[in-house]
Amino acid sequence: MDTDDLLTEAVNCDLCGRDTQIPGYSPQFGLLQAKWGYGSRHDGEQYRVQLCETCFFKVLVYIKQERRIEHLFDNDSSDDQDLGLVAHGDCWGDISS
């Protein structure tokens, strides 16, 4: 299934099960995906998890917390407020990063 195909059909959150459709708009969801290749313990496995906005940000908060724990005693404390953010205010996909 192509990402463009997901824009034309109903998408339910894989975590909470809610519909990601916003009335009058296309489904609004985030993807957590992986494709593991040769040499990986999960060689040949592919994953795609579709998340509603609420669940996406819950997962992102969890990842940020785990990152803080991993780097708790590092001398260089990094700000992870924008971890994963690649664009802001780019509703139409016309702002290059």
Question: How would you sum up this structure, described in words?
Answer:
The structure is a single chain. The two termini are 26 Å apart. The mean pLDDT is 84. The protein is of the alpha+beta class and 97 residues long. The longest helix is centred in the middle third of the chain and has 18 residues, at 53-70. It has helices spanning 3-6, 53-70, and strands at 30-35, 46-51. It has a two-stranded antiparallel sheet with strand order 1-2. The chain contains two helices and two strands. The relative contact order is 0.13.
Mean pLDDT across the residues is 84
Give start-end ranges of low-pLDDT stretches.
none
Spell the H/E element sequence.
HEEH
Main sheet record: 2 strands, antiparallel
Q: Calculate the terminal CA-CA distance, rounded to whole Å.
A: 26 Å
What is this structure, in a nutshell?
Helices cover 23% and strands 12% of the residues.
